[in-house]
């Protein structure tokens, strides 16, 4: 197939941008990029004029199973999230509920141009749950990395179990997943019980992904334990990393780790200030993620926009504190698009195959085009357009490994009615299990008393 006359953000090493260029796809790979390409007979042609072609986006941390509860936690803090999922209600999710959330979340990802997603799957309280998670991922034609976790047990328990080892052999080794990680957090307990899980990761040769630097949950102690024990290996992904000291950032940078930044999450839940302004100073590679649809949007346009804004907001705030003015922004739109594509591919060790539009790489291509939208012209600064102007509704066509999964703004062969039916069954089950009062309370946490300051200018009354 061939895309004709698009504005191409290749995201190659020099961030080459091509105007009026074609992208030729043969089988599952990008064959050629340039003007007026000759396409083989019988090819499919897609008019990309007026649109932007870019590599498929990569989300390095999303709890897909929570998509079944979309929007429920919009007014939560991180504390309320922990109480609801970790302590009270997470255990009520059955394997079919994991399947329902994963199916919906996976469809949502490919619909919004996220062609590779890490399913940070910490609801796997049994291997049946894990099988259901993988079944759903295999039912959707995207690339998915399973990050296996279980918040109902210590990682030293589940990761060392015979059932887990058996699952790994059955579903991961030689399976269809794009990758596999172990997903668990290091609490900073000086006894370092998580060591056993790191040893399993090392034995399997798979990376660890860990929520590190989360206010009130994980901190420098965890980083120090991992580092001192020799478990901070290249390829490990540190999620949020929002409340860490410079010393911890140095340890991450020196050991070849990267950080997955979930700006919408960090801003609203309270893990800490979105850390890109610190990561840049420490030379730490960045990828972007959406964390969970239980609060936020599941598309990386929001991630790019909020990340660029948060970074700049911090720069201004720091400067104003010193009575200074920022005259030039350090972080540019192009860098944030890089983080959403190449950055994610690099974090997953997949950058030789995906993350950029260059001949020989896998054909994971997103066309942003919407002729009915007054926002799609003029197209002057394409990176700025992707970050600040475009939205998921403008994702016109998505190709993954040469296969068209979305065309003319509509998912191809996706059974949304089936997904809706499964999610509805999950909601019915949880609502009945929790009871109507608990269900409503969970969604509507108490509002702290608001105190209006005394206003000295109001004399009348
Ligand atoms: Zn998370």
UniProtKB/TrEMBL annotation:
Keywords: Hydrolase
SUPFAM superfamilies xrefs: Composite domain of metallo-dependent hydrolases, Metallo-dependent hydrolases
InterPro entries, alphabetized: Amidohydro-rel (IPR006680), Metal-dep_hydrolase_composite (IPR011059), Metal_Hydrolase (IPR032466), MTA/SAH_deaminase (IPR050287)
Pfam families: Amidohydro_1
Ranges for domain Amidohydrolase-related: 52-405
NCBIfam families: PRK08204.1
Cited PANTHER family: AMIDOHYDROLASE-RELATED DOMAIN-CONTAINING PROTEIN, AMINOHYDROLASE SSNA-RELATED
Protein name, entry field: Amidohydrolase family protein
Taxonomic placement: Bacteria, Bacillati, Actinomycetota, Actinomycetes, Micromonosporales
């Amino acid at each position: 197939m061939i895309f004709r006359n698009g504005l191409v953000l290749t995201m190659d090493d020099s961030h080459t941008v091509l105007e009026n260029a074609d992208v030729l796809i043969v089988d599952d790979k990008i064959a050629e990029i340039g003007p007026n390409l000759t396409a083989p007979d019988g090819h499919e042609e897609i008019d990309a004029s007026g649109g932007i072609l870019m590599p498929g986006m990569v989300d390095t941390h999303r709890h897909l199973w929570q998509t079944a509860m979309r929007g429920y936690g919009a007014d939560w803090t991180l504390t309320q999230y922990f109480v609801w999922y970790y302590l009270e209600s997470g255990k009520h999710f059955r394997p079919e509920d994991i399947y329902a959330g994963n199916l919906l979340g996976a469809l949502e990802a490919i619909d919004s141009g996220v062609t590779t997603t890490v399913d940070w799957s910490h609801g796997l309280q049994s291997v049946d749950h894990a099988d259901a998670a993988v079944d759903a991922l295999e039912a959707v034609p995207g690339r998915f990395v399973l990050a296996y976790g279980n918040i109902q047990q210590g990682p030293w328990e589940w990761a060392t179990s015979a059932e887990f080892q058996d699952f790994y052999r059955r579903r991961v080794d030689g399976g269809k997943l794009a990758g596999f990680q172990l997903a668990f957090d290091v609490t900073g307990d000086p006894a370092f019980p998580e060591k056993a899980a790191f040893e399993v990761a090392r034995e399997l040769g798979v990376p660890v992904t860990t929520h590190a630097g989360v206010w009130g949950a994980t901190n420098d102690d965890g980083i120090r334990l991992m580092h001192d024990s020799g478990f901070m290996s290249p390829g490990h992904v540190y999620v949020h990393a929002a409340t860490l000291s410079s010393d911890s950032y140095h340890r991450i940078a020196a050991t070849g780790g990267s950080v997955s930044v979930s700006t919408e999450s960090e801003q609203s839940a309270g893990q800490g200030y979105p850390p890109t302004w610190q990561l840049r100073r420490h030379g730490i590679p960045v990828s972007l993620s959406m964390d969970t649809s239980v609060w936020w949007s599941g598309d990386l346009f929001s991630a790019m926009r909020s990340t660029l804004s948060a970074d700049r907001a911090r720069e201004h705030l720091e400067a104003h504190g010193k009575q200074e003015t920022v005259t030039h922004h350090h972080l540019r739109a192009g860098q944030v698009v890089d983080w959403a594509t190449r950055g994610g591919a690099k974090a997953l060790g997949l950058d030789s195959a995906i993350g950029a539009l260059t001949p020989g790489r896998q054909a994971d291509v997103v066309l942003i085009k919407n002729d009915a939208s007054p926002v799609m012209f003029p197209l002057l600064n394409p990176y700025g357009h992707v970050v600040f102007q475009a939205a998921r509704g403008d994702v016109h066509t998505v190709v993954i490994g040469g296969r068209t999964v979305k065309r003319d703004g509509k998912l191809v062969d996706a059974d949304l009615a089936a997904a809706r039916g499964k999610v509805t069954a999950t909601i019915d089950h949880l609502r009945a299990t929790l009871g109507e009062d608990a269900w409503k309370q969970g969604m509507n946490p108490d509002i702290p008393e608001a105190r209006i300051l005394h206003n000295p200018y109001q004399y009348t009354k």
